[in-house]
Each structure stands twice: as structure tokens, then as C-alpha cells.
Amino acid sequence: MVLRKDNWIAICLSLLFIGLFAVGFYTLNDVQIESTFKINEQNIMEKNGDHYLLINERELALPKDFYDKIELEKYNKYKIKYVYNRIKKNDGEVVMLKRYGEQPWGQ
After folding, report:
1. Distance (Å, whole) CA 54 – CA 37
2. Is the pLDDT at 3 greater than 80, yes or no?
3. 107 part of a folded domain
4. pLDDT, tens digit (0-9, with 9 covering 90-100), for 61-74
5. d(CA 56, CA 14)
6. What is the pLDDT of residues 88-101, one digit of tens each?
7. Is 15 helix (H, G, I), strand (E, B) or coil?
8. Fewer beta carbons under 10 A from the terminal one: N or C of the chain?
């Protein structure tokens, strides 16, 4: 069976539409949370050299620059913004972390 050019175009457009729909559905399930949390040593874990923050039963990827900001010996309250996807059970990443009460111009 030989497909004509019109059939190939219809198949390609259908696949493109299905792909765009799947990507859109996945990204619509992204959730962003911003709140103040008390952090202690039990909330921070390390796996294979990467750091994770345990919040609300989620393992959130904690970038190194945010990990370096955490000073548990001085402060335990931090304003944290994280993003996760409702489709994936344990998916998530910290996208903002600053000490509670820290001013934008502060260190």
C-alpha cells in the first residue's frame, strides 16, 4: 500500500496535534507553591551528590546555590517557592529560597 502525499501530510499533522496536546496536558498539571517553612536537618537529604528538600512528603530538587544559602545554625525559617507536577508522584524543584524576613537587598 502506497500512501499519497495528502495522506502523509494528514498523518504528520495528526501526530503533531497529539504531541502538542500531550505536552499541554502535562504542563497544565504544574503546580507552584510559595510559603514559609521551618527547615531542620531532617528536611535536607543527599542522594548521589544531589541535595533534596523534603516538604509536604515531596522530595524537591535543591540546586546548589540554594543549598549554600541555608544556615540552620542561625535560621530555620525560610520562604520557599517550589514547582511540581501532579502527574508525577515525587517530582519537584525548589525555584526560590530566602531566609524569612530577608530584604531583597540583603545578603
Report:
1. 11
2. no
3. no
4. 999 999 998 998 88
5. 40
6. 767 799 999 988 87
7. helix
8. N
CATH number of the CATH domain containing 71: 2.40.50
Taking the C-alpha atoms of residue 94 and residue 53, their distance in angstroms, rounded to an integer, is: 8
pLDDT of residue 44: 92
* Residue 17 resides in a domain: no
Q: To 10 degrees, the CA torsion angle through 76, 81, 82, 86?
A: 120
Amino acid residing at 47? K
3-class DSSP assignment, residue 88: coil
Long-range contacts of 32-37 (CB under 8 A, 24+ apart): 32/81, 32/82, 32/83, 32/95, 33/81, 33/82, 33/83, 33/84, 34/79, 34/80, 34/81, 34/96, 35/79, 35/80, 36/77, 36/78, 36/79, 36/80, 36/100, 37/77, 37/78, 37/80
Q: What whole-number distance in Å separates Cα of residue 107 and Cα of residue 103?
A: 8
